[in-house]
Amino acid sequence: MTETADRLTTSRNRRTAKAPSRGKGLKVKRVFTTAGVHPYDEVVWERRDVVMTNWRDGSINFEQRGVEFPAEWSINATNIVTTKYFRGAVGSSQRETSLRQLIDRVVLTYGAAGREHDYFASEGDAEVFEHELTWMLLHQVFSFNSPVWFNVGTASPQQVSACFILAVDDTMDSILNWYREEGLIFKGGSGAGLNLSRIRSSKELLSSGGTASGPVSFMRGADASAGTIKSGGATRRAAKMVVLDIDHPDIEEFIETKAREEDKIRALRDAGYDMDLGGKDITSVQYQNANNSVRVNDEFMRAVEEGTDFGLRARGDGSVIETVDARELFGKVTKAAWECADPGIQYDDTINDWHTNPETGRINASNPCSEYMSLDNSSCNLASLNLMKFLKDDGTFDSKNFVKAVELIITAMDISICFADFPTAPIGETTRAYRQLGIGYANLGAMLMATGHAYDSRGGQSLAAAITSLMTGTAYRRSAELAGVVGAYDGYARNADAHARVMRKHAAANDAIRPVGADDADVLKAATAEWQECLAIGTENGWRNAQASVLAPTGTIGFMMDCDTTGIEPDFSLVKFKKLVGGGSMQIVNQTVPRALKSLGYQDEQVEAIVEYIAEHGHVVDAPSLRPEHYEVFDCAMGERSISPMGHVRMMAAVQPFISGAISKTVNMPESATVEEVADIYFQGWKMGIKALAIYRDNCKVGQPLSGGKGKNDGTKDEAPVAEAAPATALAHPVRKRLPKKRTSVTTSFSVAGAEGYMTAGMYEDGSLGEVFLKLGKQGSTLAGVMDAFSIGISLALQHGVPLETYIQKFTNMRFEPAGMTDDPDIRIAQSVMDYIFRRLALDHLPVEKRANLGIFTAEERSAQVAGSYGTSASTPAVEEDDVDLEQLRGSAPIETAKVEEKVTPAGPTSIKEAHSSAELLELVTGTATDAPLCMTCGTKMRPAGSCYVCEGCGSTSGCS
Fold first, then answer.
1. How far apart are CA 60 and CA 55, in angstroms?
2. Cα–Cα distance between 940 and 930 in angstroms, integer?
3. Catalytic residue ranges
4. Mean pLDDT across the chain
5. Gyration radius (Cα) of the chain, Å
6. Residue 428 C-alpha from the chain's centroid
7. Residue 55 has pLDDT above 50, yes or no
8. For residue 360, which phi and psi values (nearest 5 degrees)?
9. 663 has which bridge partners?
10. CATH entry 3.20.70.20 includes domain 167-353
């Protein structure tokens, strides 16, 4: 570890100014570690090879052999940490090769800064702090956000924050500076949010007498900038949030901006353009690089409730320049969200009522994922606890060790601000003056299931609220203690009364929790004690941090901690896709399920039978021995028994009073949801005191590749098409039906990603397909010979009665090179030559009813579907797999293949399908399409994580981490 020590020495030498000591320093007691034993010596280490291959062609995308990790860490966690967080060029001597080096690089930097700024009472306390932090990271008890792992202890700027809020005023200089600052943040792979409401509307005059452009016009420039810079991010695609106040005169234009662009996307898609997420033609439409949110106030929501008018106000003098019907305007917000998932909604008065620094300024905006809400030009660094690590063997929550963990983590997070670098000077100044932190947690859904609590139940919500209250109360109590050691935050004095008022609001909300069982009652008792101590110490010392907690998506770091669920989310599904040592993968039932069954009192034999049932069916309905009253414990985000949209809202409302910031979460709604249901979600969010909400209705956006042509799950599994059962007198073996000497045939020329070929299909007298011959490659070449043999094999099988549907199901979606654009107007994108050939055969030889079940349509049929259903409450046509631009996904994808056997009727063959993520696995097991994008790094289907998406293969996220 010499290199790490050298780096830390250099870092300490660069800093000469020490913070003034205001107290005696922190005394740090051992909780998880043993005196005289280093945490590294308590675990079994092993060497592993991380080889990430492209599952389409077997090519190696990443390779680092002999990396060192604890034996208890999963292969997935090993792969993601090695590829994402190890620093140094691969193959060089500077490359990190062990988790020890990674943890030391971060922890020793924090320890050195803590010593330098007088956080500890003695050298011994500093060493205990380092050991305790190391132990928790080593045992996956918590994780810092990704920028810490990327930057701390390296030669790069020491950026530790993942969340940023910018500001823009009504001047051209400020607007152009907005573009610049946003670009700098995107360059580093992070995201930012801002409120455009200070920019005067297009209905107001400039000082020159001309008409202003309005904020929506300036959004076009920012969107183009983000679309250009996002791919240059060092770690992930950029994310951004744009907010506009409900009383802005241009609010209607803002509301409908993305919905109208979605109309364009559909029209262009049906004209044959590649409009999927990441597609090469998607850049021709605007506003696709940001999440949009409307900021509503209580005045507006009361007007909606009462059915009265509402005034839109000039930006200059605040005068009302237009009066609108509040319900009609609210209806436009919810209709646009129904159509394209934007805009989300933020409740301004609720947000600012919990604001600890109102004397400094209002809270106007949020980060892209909506969990960080604070002053303009500020940032927040995050860390998340793994709640499953605090479940004791008897199923109760370990409040005592949870409190100790929060103390240590908050201390470390505050220390990081002392040495952190920031992308802009204003952000650095505000963050150092207010020291916003964002402690949170992951694995809530898994913990609730493991303890026998349904996610959407009073017991589950009460336990979640008590744990969240305990976390934030402890964090602020430690913040008050830190204020006594190193001083309150610079902006505290002018906001002292407001900050104390918010602390009392949190404590009062804690007192209002009504426990349901003994487990949440015990946690609540500990939380009450923490809030009482927080108020007492804070009254004397003030507080070190203006903000303490948020609930972030925990995408990549969730995999680092081997979490089953992210952030506040419930479990995604009961079946999971798991990588194995030595390569390969398998389908497993969540390990939380057996633990939950045992906590509910089931015997080992019953648990085994239920788990086997879930493995086969993907849900618990009618599982042997499982009592119906326990079904709700196993409800998930997707699948047969999915949690209702309002169930997600109720959980958010339960924990919101105990979060300094807000909650990153999207409420997923079925495709059949109505505009009225969206309106009810947004309205109830205001009533329940939530700070921000966003919804996503399945299939409401074109840019969601591979949402599939499958219908919604009716409780039965999708089965492979099979031939009708033969009558009892039929022969026991198939008989060949030869084609006539003279037969009708059709020859089709095709091109897939530039590879040209010919297909000749010969038919019987009734027009059914009897033979296929393929010409690909030069005559006499190996490829041509293989294709000839393949053609003969397919033709013989067709003549012996194998249904064409069977081949279409087997060979469509097969992925290998060449893959990409074709010259066929009905099949614009093919994932391979085989994928194209059998899609073409389906279009030529199957009736539309059978093709509909396979999700294969002509361009004309797709256009007719859109024309017939778009704009009504009927289901919109599913995005077809034809439309996925695989050109964008080549050259990477670190996913092995899971095999899922689907049982069919005895008359048909067993169908083996492939899955490359839990999302795809869930589709195969349940027959329900998961509406999620493809990972832009490795090409596999992602799954939801808060208001973002996360890839299980490489750990990439679509936003914050």
1. 9
2. 13
3. 367, 369, 371
4. 84
5. 29
6. 28
7. yes
8. -85, -40
9. 551
10. yes
Pair of tokens at residue 780: 């006499």
Could you tell me how far CA 747 lies from the centroid of its own chain? 46
The candidate with the shortest Cα–Cα distance to 395, out of 600, 632, 610, is 600
Alpha carbons within 13 angstroms on the beta-carbon side of residue 115 total 19
Show the tokens assigned to 705: 């590749």
99: tokens are: 């988790």
Q: Yes or no: say if 808 and 846 are a contact pair by the CB < 8 Å rule.
A: yes
Which neighbouring-strand residues pair with 50? 64
pLDDT at 237 over 60: no
Looking at the chain, how many residues does it have? 961
Alpha-carbon span 616 to 589, nearest angstrom? 10
Per domain, the residue ranges of the chain are 167-353, 712-856
Q: Which two tokens stand for residue 842?
A: 């389906």
In whole angstroms, what is the distance from residue 570 CA to residue 549 CA?
Answer: 20
Sorting pLDDT into bands at 50, 70 and 90, what band is 590? confident
Query: What is the Cα–Cα distance from 385 to 402, expressed in whole angstroms?
Result: 9
Token output for 560? 């680092």
Structure tokens at 370: 């909506």
832: nearest Cα among 865, 810, 860: 810
The pLDDT tens digits for 765-809 are 888 898 998 888 777 778 888 888 888 999 888 998 888 888 888
Angle among Cα 350, 351, 355 to the nearest 5 degrees reads 115
Nearest to 503 by CA among 567, 549, 444, 446: 549
Question: Phi and psi at residue 803, in whole multiples of 5°?
Answer: -65, 145
**Nearest of 191, 302, 643 to residue 449 by alpha carbon:** 643
The answer to whether 633 touches 452, Cβ cutoff 8 Å, is yes
Handedness of CA 647, 649, 654, 655 (dihedral sign): positive
